[in-house]
Amino acid sequence: MTVKKGVIFVLHGRKDRVVQTNITAVQQAASKLTVPFDIGFLEGKKQTLEDSIVQLASKGCKEFIFLPVLLFAATHVKIELPLRAGKVLPQDAVATYLEPLGTTHAVLRFLAEQLKGQPKLLPQAVLLIAHGTPHFDEPFSQLEEIAQKLTLISGRKVYPANYHGKHLYTEILQQLPEPLIIQRLFLTDGFLPTKIKQDILAKRKVKDTILPTLADSVAVVKAILERLADSNVTRHA
To answer: Does this entry carry the keyword Disulfide bond (predicted)?
Structure first.
């Protein structure tokens, strides 16, 4: 007997409201699914992770595929997600936790295309800023690898940096007084990406080029489908 699968798209969310950023991207990717799906937020009291599990269980799902619509695996992905899900999943359920989106080819292509569109007469260096975490080393190692690949692809020196933890972007900016291309590697244009942009504009005496985030981009759709490709839950084009 075939076990019925279901996909749960896990988004960060906000405590005070349901955030709409990237919901359209998730829905576009979900239109390719051949199994039930739901969206669960880690923060807030509406459309919670637990609600999404209960919803899919009510549809007869026994295998739950969790896809974090986040960029890197830190506390939310490594600890909070499996801990909370484990308390709600049916006893006979099978849970699969997929990797977040940051290391997908789709995200790398998005970043490369962003840089490709910049003037090449004086190839500026790039500061690639991610959220960061003080608790795990893997996210920055992955960010370093992305920066190395972008350096090879673009012909520009790409410096990886964090907002939180070690390798802070503010410290690296002090070492790079020349105009830079600033790429904020975030899935939304929310509080932190906006704060980073405002901070750079206010404190830097040179004119940096600040590129858009991934918010609501088609790259998010492609990254989601890339992660789901090996789960046998999508229609083949």
So the answer is: no
Residues 126 and 76 in one domain: no
Q: In whole angstroms, what is the distance from residue 134 CA to residue 165 CA?
A: 4
**DSSP-assigned letters across all residues of 33-65:** BSS-EEEEESSSSSSBHHHHHHHHHHTT--EEE
What are the residue ranges of helices labelled H in the chain?
23-30, 49-58, 75, 81-88, 105-116, 138-154, 169-175, 191-203, 218-228
Per residue of the chain (237 residues), what is the pLDDT tens digit?
567 999 999 998 876 665 677 898 999 999 999 999 999 999 888 899 999 999 999 999 999 999 999 999 999 999 999 999 999 999 999 999 999 999 999 999 999 999 998 987 677 999 999 999 999 999 999 999 999 999 999 999 999 999 999 999 999 999 999 999 999 999 999 899 999 999 999 999 888 999 999 998 999 999 999 999 989 999 865
The whole-model pTM stands at: 0.94
> Based on the domain organization, do 47 and 123 belong to the same domain?
no
